Amino acid sequence: MQPTVSIPQHWGYPRFALEQRTEQGMILGLYYYPSGTELAEQFDEGWRYVLMPKKNSDEISYLQENQIQPLSPQESFTQITAEIEFYQSQIAILKQQLFALTGGSTNG
């Protein structure tokens, strides 16, 4: 079964999705300031996003929808391809280490 998140109809739908890559980083979370609340009065009503600008960092940023730019399909393709290549090289290194550890035997 797929997890489901219900959003009240009067909130409007978020523009970005969890784990979406953007120019500002990867979207890790989102929350909403509904109209008529103290937060909405202070900071404007709408969706806020939690982003991780760099994959291997503990830095987090909090941005409004209008502060986030989506990646173009080509930029997304380039990022994903680079990440795949990185992990493939990591797998190759681990295989070499395993081969050295087992003396060339693949049975362990």
Care to count the β-strands?
4
Q: Which runs of at least 5 residues are low in confidence (pLDDT < 50)? A: none
Question: What is the approximate shape?
Answer: elongated
What's the story with the biggest beta sheet? 4 strands, antiparallel
Q: What is the CA-CA span between the terminal residues? A: 37 Å
* Beta-strand residue fraction: 15-25%
Measured as a percent range, the helix fraction is 25-40%
Overview of this protein structure:
With 108 residues, this protein is of the alpha+beta class. Helices cover 33% and strands 20% of the residues. The chain contains two helices and four strands; from the N terminus they run E-E-H-E-E-H. Strands 1-2-3-4 form a four-stranded antiparallel beta sheet. It is elongated and about 70 Å long.
Keywords for this entry:
alpha+beta, four-stranded antiparallel β-sheet
Topology, element by element:
Blueprint: E1 21-22, E2 25-33, H1 38-43, E3 46-52, E4 61-64, H2 73-102
Antiparallel strand pairs: 1-2, 2-3, 3-4
Short description:
With about 110 residues, the chain is an alpha+beta fold.
